[in-house]
Structures are given as structure tokens and as C-alpha cells.
User: Fold this.
Amino acid sequence: MNEIPDSDTAPPASPGSEADAVWQRLLSEVAALPGLPGVYRYFDADGQLLYVGKARNLKKRVSSYFHKNHGGTRIGHMVSKIVRMETTAVRSEAEALLLENNLIKTQNPKFNILFRDDKSYPYLKLVSHEFPRVAYYRGSVDRKHRYFGPYPSAWAVKESILLLQKVFHLRTCEDTVFNNRTRPCLLHQIKRCSAPCVGYVDADAYAGDVRDAERFLEGETQQVIDALQARMMEHADKLEFEKAAEIRNQLSALSKVLHQQAMDTGSDKDADVLAVRVQGGRACVNLAMVRGGRHLGDRPYFPTHVEDAAALSDVLSAEEAEGAAGAMPVEVQVLEAFIAQHYLDGAVPPLLVTSHAVDPALIEALSNQAGMRIAAVHQPREQRRAWLEMAVKGCDLALARLLAEEGSQQARTRALVDALDLTPDNLDTIRIECFDISHTAGEATQASCVVFENHRMQSSQYRRYNIDGITPGDDYAAMRQVLTRRYGKLAEAAARGEARLPDLVLVDGGRGQVSMAREVFGELGLDLALIAGVEKGEGRKVGLEELVFADGREKVYLGKDSAALMLIAQIRDEAHRFAITGMRARRASVRTGGSRLEDIAGVGPKKRARLLQRFGGLRGVAAASVDDLASVEGISKELAEEIYRVLH
Assistant:
């Protein structure tokens, strides 16, 4: 083994007897390292993991950190903190790569490039059933149902579901709703569902639509078109012109969808396009997905520790750097870190189109992990080149937007989007609605809805709801009523494309309120991933709140210093304030016997003005007798009795 020359080594900047002993121990450990592939780990005095690295040759790689004094650089700063080192020798560089990135993802070392561990990629789910339904899904997949994806964003999944509804008329309702329908719902009326719940389509015909939808999602578009045309002609030959017309409409809708596709993806059915940019100390990797021959959009990722990790990765021993053109560009380091952390324990398509060339050993490790051959192309031609150019442009825009948002009001919105894995088309248009219930021992129950949009509260869009017909103090029933009233008509309008649902619905409460919101959204056919509950933390202390989700995701604690939690607290507190002020006003009105005249059916603006003018205000109206009220122009005896009853 080659010993490290003592003349080239340097102890930490603040030497002492203990520090010298630590340094000499580290040097002896480095000198004893084998010249094999492996992974090394550095720890500080508190046992915190500082850095994880891989090496083709452990001895050469690790000695490069200790053979000279790195001064006040980032490398020197990290090396001065090292008090313990661990190494693991493996059989190949591919194994080292796998181990390195598993450790990075699980241990979060301080000086490595880190990408947020995204375990919630959305899928399109085809639920097993006699009449399968199509659904939006996040989480681990199983063999019981069919899954298509993953998709880059929730928006991409929802667009695909809408497409399947338009073309193949597949149902989206929950089984509990499906089993209890007695008449077709709105989706059937607007030709988005064939209404299998009430027998408007038999199992065989519906199964045919499901098969066509599956083939379409798998990229067999032409085969689907040919099959539909054949079925249309078969019905026409049998003089079944209504059925033939239905298939003709399906073909028309499918042709329109294909015509509206942003890109013709050619023969590649599944591919990921990866572009990277580094600027201003920040980096962005933009991932564009092609699934089933359709370009599904892109999604930017922003790693941390880029500058530290880049500086550390530039430390090469003379033997490792021999024959190299120089240190690895930081863009390549970021891209390789993303590929390793993103794909090594997840699904990977057979083709990666990259903006920079990556290490063949990385692609080999991916292939071994996936059990199939993975190809990587960094100088693509024709259609692939167009994909990459679009991804690069999207990467530039995302990074520029991030830099502009840093330190601004928009940073909190960005933090919330990242923390909750929201995927709005435009950060400026993200819409959050928050609900709260307020009452005094069950009296004068009122619900509030406040709106956050364009990075600020939109007071003109706030709404209050008087809650009646429930057991006093039943907050769950109150929440059910307000959500049903708020989203009942809105869901129908959204299904017709005439309204927009919020990107996030917050309810002030824990699992109970979230469960109630889940029931309402399930009945209305809305996406459960929209709902989050703000649950009080331990001791109900501010800053310890946790988020509870309706779609089964685990609770999330954002941290008391989180910008995302600050925004959620602001929205939640505004909903609470708005509910309390409304409740107090209603309670005062009820206790004094003076309800607002506009709440009385049959009393319009003109009659209200005449009453107030005649009796000098609301108190005078409340003090008037039935005969006095009936003496006002336009007020009948029956209406006067109703006014008197309400005000007393």
C-alpha cells in the first residue's frame, strides 16, 4: 500500500493534543485503506454525518482529502470537522453507486447534493371492478389494480382522466356512490360517463371501452382508432345507427384530443427528458415525461448543498485526475445526483434523454437495478432533440423564477407548494380555500371560508355560512354542511369546464374534520388529494401544528420555522378571525331579537327600505306590532306576521 507523505498532510487549523491525535488516527486509517471500489463516510464530533462519497479506488480517493492543507475553502471547512471515518468496500463501482445514494437518501449528509425525497408521484389508477373506475392515486402500487404512470404532476393525471371520460366514458365515482345510484348523474348528462350504475351500458360494452382506454394509455393509439372504426362499421352494417353514431362521436373526440397534443412523440412510448442549469448558487433539474407516447409535461427539482458538494467533488487525487480533461462540471454532478437519487430505487423508463453526458457506470447500475436495458442519449436528434430543447427552456424559466422569488413574498407560497407537493400550472394562480367553524356553546353556529390567491388573502372572495338544522355544537355536521353548500354547485360547474376548483382545501381540525371533508368530496366526485387538515400539535402550542390528509398520506410536520407553516397559520388564523366576527355579530343579533331583514323571505330591498324609513331603523321595526307592520305599503298580513315571528 502507498503511504501518504507526511510532508503533504496538514492537521486541522486549530491543533491541540486531542486534535493532533484525531488527525494522526485518521491518517493511519487512510493509509490502511484498500485500493478497491467502495463508499466512504465522514462524521463530526457530534456523530453527524457530513459527507458520503463513492470511489473506484478507496485509498486514492479518500487520501485526496487529507494529503494537503485545504485552507479556508469549503473542503477545508469540512475536513476540519472530521473526527471519524467509515468505509465499505464493494465488488464493483455500480454497487458503490447504489450504496452511496441509498445512504444519501436515508441519512441526509450535510455536504452532499440533496434532492427532496419525492415519494408521492401521482398515478392514474384503474380500479378492479365489474365496471372499473378510473381514479387519481398517490402511494405504493399493488397488483390488485392497474396503474399508469408515474405522471409529473397531479394536473397531468387529471387531464388524462378528463380525456378518458370524454373519449371512453369511464366512470370516476366511488363504489359507495356507484352502488346506490338510482338515476344517472351530471357526468352522464354531459356525455362524460356511460352510466353503468343504472344499467345504461352492459358489462361487455363497458369492458370494451376499458380495453380501449388501456391501449390508449399504453401508446397504441392507432390500434384503438382502427378498432373503433371497425366497431362503428359493424353497427352500421346491422343498421344500428345510434350505436354507430356514438362510436363516431368517440372517434371525433379522440381525433380532437390527438390534434391538441402539444407534441408528436413519434415511436418512443416511454422516456424521461432531463435538463440541468446552475446559476447564482442554485441548481434546477427539469424532468419531462413521455408516457404511452404522450408528452405529459415537465416538473422542476431544486437541490440543496450544491456549492458545498461541487467544491468537495472537485477534490481529486493525481491518480484519479490523470487523463481527465479537468474536474467534473457542476451541472454533471447535479444531474448524476438526481438520476441516482430519483431512479435507483424507483421506476425508470427505458430511455433517458439528458442535457449533459453522464457516467456510463451510472446507467449500468440503473439497468442492473431495473432488470432491463436503459439507454441514455445526450446529443439527440429529430423529435428527441425537440423534447430536450423544450426541457432546457423550461429549466431556464424555472430557475429564473426561483431566483426571483428568493427572499420575496412569493417564497412562502413556493415553500408550501414544495412541502405539500402541489403542482399548480402557475405559482401566481395557486388558490387555497380554508374553512373554520365558530359558535358559543352551540349558539349562532357560523362557518367561514377565506381565500388565498396571487400570494395574498382575497377578502372580497370571503364567504360566511349560517349553519342550521344540526345538533348544537356538532362541528362535524357543521363542516359537512358548509363543504356541501360550497362545492356542490361548484363541482357541477367544474365538470362542465365553467369553474375552477381550488388547488388546496384547508380545514381547521384534525382527523375528524378531514374524515368529514373526505365523505363530502367522495359524494361529489372531487379529488381527495385537495384536502388537508390543520391539527393542533402537542400541548396545542403554536408552531407544532401537523397536517392531516384525506387521501391516506402520512401526517406532515413542517417545523415551527417553516415558511410553509407560516403561510398555513396565516390562512388558518384569518379563517378563524372571520368566523368569530361573523358568529359574534349573529349571536348579538339573535340575543337582541334583531335579525337582519334581508334574511326574511319576501322582504326585498324596496320593502326593507320602506320598513326602516317608517319605523326609524331595525329596533323600531322589531318593536312594531303585526298591525303596524301590515300598514306599510307592500307588506301583507301574512308577511307582517312572518316579520314579527322572526324578529321575536
Observations:
- The first strand starts at residue 38 and ends at 43.
